[in-house]
Amino acid sequence: MARLRDCLPRLMVMIRSLLFWSLVYCYCGLCASVYLLKLLWSIGKGPTQTFRRVAREHPPACLNDPSLGTHCYVRIKDSGLRFHYVAAGERGKPLMLLLHGFPEFWYSWRHQLREFKSEYRVVALDLRGYGETDAPIHRENYKLDCLITDIKDILDSLGYSKCVLIGHDWGGMIAWLIAICYPEMVMKLIVINFPHPNVFTEYILRHPAQLFKSSYYYFFQIPWFPEFMFSINDFKALKHLFTSHSTGIGRKGCRLTAEDLEAYIYVFSQPGALNGPINHYRNIFSCLPLKHHMVITPTLLLWGEKDAFMEAEMAEGTKIYVKNYFRLTILSEASHGLQQEQPDIVNKLIWTFLKEETRRKDWLFL
C-alpha cells in the first residue's frame, strides 16, 4: 500500500500528460479538417482565384518613413543571426524595447516610436523569423529558450544592461519570460493583451471558449499547411484578420489605412516569410507550464475587453504571479491590437506608469 502511495503522484502526472497531448493532437486534427474543407470550398468556387498571388517587389513608402526612426541591424555573436530593428530617440537615453505579436512586425509600434523617443531610445524589433530578421529553417530554432536568449543578446549588443520592456500578444509572452528569467534586465514591464503564461495554460484547459479562441495555436502545429492557407486568395486570410469586425484593428479607434495594410501584406508575402512566425508556435506545448513563474518587476497589463483571441478573465488572474507593483487597465471598447487601435490612450497609460511610484497593486477599468 505504501509503495502504491509513492507511485500515485508519478502516475497522476503521466495521466495528465497523456490527456494533455491527446487533446493537443485531437484538436490539431480537428482544426486541419476544418481548414481543409475551407480550402476545398475555395477551390470549388474559383480555382484560379484561390491560387492567385500579386507580386510585391517594392515596400510601401510608410515602411521607410523617417519620422518613425532609423532602420538598423545587429548580428548576434553566439547564434550568428542578424536582427533588424527600427530605432528612434538619441543613443544614451534609457532603452525602451518593443516586442511585436503575430502576425505583425516592427511597424505595429509606429505610434509608440514617435511618442516615446523624446525621453527614450526606442527600439522596435523584428523578432527571430520575422520581417528582415534572419529566419532559421528548423522549428527547433524557435524554442522559447532561443527567443529569450535573443532578447538578452540584443540588449548586450546595443550596449544596455536593462530596459523598459513592452510586448504585445506573442511578444507579450516573450516579455513575461524575460521578466521571469532575467528580472535584473527589466526596469518596468508592460504587456498588452497577453496574460502570464501559466494563467494562459491553466485557463485554456478549463474553459472551452478560450480553447476555441486559441484554435490557431493547435492548427499551427501542422507542418506547412498553415503557411499555405494564409497565402491562398492573395493572402485573403491575413487581410481579413486585420480588417474584419471581430478581429480587425479599429473597432472604436484608429483603423489601418490602405497603405498600412499593404505594409503587412508586403512583409508576409515575401518567399518563406510565414514559416518563421508560425514556427514560434510549434514548440509552445513542450515548454509550458513554466517551472519558474514569479515576476518581481513592476508591471502594467493593458487589455482590450473585446479581444477576439483572449478572454479578459485571464488578465485578472495574472495578478497572483506578480510579486511587485501590478496595475491592470481594461479598455472596454478596445480589441486585440490595442497599441495600434487606441494609441493615444495606450501611450498616456504607459507614460503614467513610467512616471509613477510603483509600490502597490492597482486595477482600473476604462
From TrEMBL:
SUPFAM superfamilies in the cross-refs: alpha/beta-Hydrolases (SSF53474)
A Pfam cross-reference name: Abhydrolase_1
GO function term, MF aspect, one: epoxide hydrolase activity
Residue stretches making up the AB hydrolase-1 domain: 94-317
Membrane-spanning residues: 20-41
Domain of life: Eukaryota
Keyword line: Hydrolase, Membrane, Transmembrane, Transmembrane helix
Similarity-based family: Belongs to the AB hydrolase superfamily. Epoxide hydrolase family.
Protein name per the record: Epoxide hydrolase 4
Species this protein is from: Lipotes vexillifer (Yangtze river dolphin)
Gene from which the chain derives: EPHX4
